[in-house]
Amino acid sequence: MDRRSVSGTLPGALAAQAIARGRFDMQHRYRSVVMDAERSEGVWLQDLDGNIFLDLFGSFALGALGYNHPALLATASSPAFARAAANPTSTPFLTAPDWLEFVHRVQERWAPAGMGSMYCVDGGGEGVESALKAAFIVHGEARRRRAGRSPDPLQMDADEQAAWMDNRGTDAVVVAFEGAFHGRGLGPLSATHSKLLHKADLPAFPWPTVPFPANRWPLADNAEHNAREEARCLVELERALDAHAGRVAAVIVEPIQSEGGDRHASPAFYQAVQRLAGQAGAAFVLDEVQTGVGTSGRLWAVEHLQLPRPPDLLCFGKKMQMGGFFSTPEFAITRFGRMYQTRNGDRCKAQLAQTVLQTIEVEDLLANVRQTGALLLEGLEQLCRRHPGLLSQARGRGFLLAFDLPTAAARDEFNRRALARGVFATYTGSRSVRLRPHLVTRPEHAEIALSVFADVAAELDG
Ligand SMILES: Cc1ncc(COP(=O)(O)O)c(C=O)c1O
Q1: Is 182 a pocket residue for ligand 1 (Cβ < 6 Å)?
Q2: Which listed CATH number (3.90.1150.10, 3.30.930.10, 3.40.50.720, 2.60.40.420) goes with 13-23+37-55+364-460?
Q3: Ligand 1 atom at shortest distance from the alpha carbon of 288
Q4: Sign of the dihedral defined by the CA atoms of residues 415, 419, 423, 425, in that order
């Protein structure tokens, strides 16, 4: 059933009033929708004024099971959840069986193949930062071993210890890709290259950046261009690795560059990046904060890449309800005091994550994402063919879907008109519409979205 209903301008009177009341929040200007958390349901986001939107924004891929999913409500209202909320612990030192059960289940059923450990923090960027720390630690210890020294930092001589304490310890680097987004903390921000506004005025490590393939769609018509692009970027990667020989702790990459404009590359490209990273003695870090937990139609997007071996580190966030990373046994940092945060392992988040992961199985949501994602992509491709001057580059894998407009202004106008018709899409890169539907978005919802996009495109195309 189509439940869309929008009347008048947005935000409506009640939402505008609520937004004004929240002015103390320095981000209050970003908002135009205020959710009615009680009345929103499934893919239908209801606002305070009673407007109802088909939510393809999904809070930038955070949304997993839609609004008020009964399984999540049952978890969040259970006595076990209340006790986890009321009795937080610093989980590395003190925990309760719910956490241990969660970790066990993830290991048994949901961790990417070949990844033997997990490290949990609060958000996605923090997970990336932690993974990079693990890479640096393993790299530093290996360098000392190769030099015939003890890997143990406490065995360093006094000058070297002083250098570390004084921020002069390392010349090791992380190689990242142009257009990448890995988070906004002062660590991951040095590997983030998607937008000037993210970086201006903020200090950054002088780490090398290499180009990411500017592939074109439809893939079948652009095979030659894309192969050339990927080869060009791999040459640049090799060059950067050579230029920093022995000093590259990690090469980090997203399976699909999300914030940077939904840019895809082929499995062969990722296989080559992994091989080159390995040859350079660098960790291969896959950032699945946005692509993980079913968004790509597989539980982890790494499953699409046909890698000959697991990545060394794989970061998660968003739908996982917490940030963190999985690691191969070699990159598990187990020494006391090396990596620790008070809130490692939030038991409330773990209970929610477990429910999300279980529900993905129970409701066969991966199959749904693949089926509905394919319908959406096909529809977007048709729209591109119908409006070649306005829409282009429809691309997607599962529910990571996007298409381009000629300019940022045209893209924003497209989204504004879609929102006024009750379809909430979002932006990425310089001129792309990004869709990140909840995993419970079904074919009938895809049809509604496509018919609204068709109307908006027809209107804009004059
Ligand atoms: C690929 C990727 N890495 C890291 C992050 C940062 O996650 P968070 O905003 O939860 O810190 C994001 C957020 O969009 C992301 O898309």
Answers
A1: yes
A2: 3.90.1150.10
A3: 1
A4: positive
